[in-house]
Amino acid sequence: MEIDLKRLAKAIHLDVERAGESRYLVFSFGHSYIVDLKSDAPCHCADYAIRGVVCAHILACRMLEGDVDVLRSLRAITPLPQAGRLIRAA
Ligand SMILES: [Zn+2]
Prior knowledge:
Layout: H1 5-11, E1 15-18, E2 23-28, E3 31-36, H2 46-49, H3 56-64, H4 68-73, H5 81-89
Antiparallel strand pairs: 1-2, 2-3
Helix pairs in contact: 1-3
The structure holds zinc ion.
């Protein structure tokens, strides 16, 4: 699963509610999506259904499930706190 960092950054800002064993309700900037991670078509948004990429809605659900690949990818878009202090001190 390729993780797009822009979509991952968006996923952090989405609210997710569990709606079943592998089903989630994802609230995304005024829209809501039903995501089923075990389905062949887990999301019906344009990103997944038309562009065929792993969308922010799926990433948000995988974060909630503790997916290690997704959680480790957060490192790429989140500076260490120490790095932030160095930038402010400069
Ligand atoms: Zn989606």
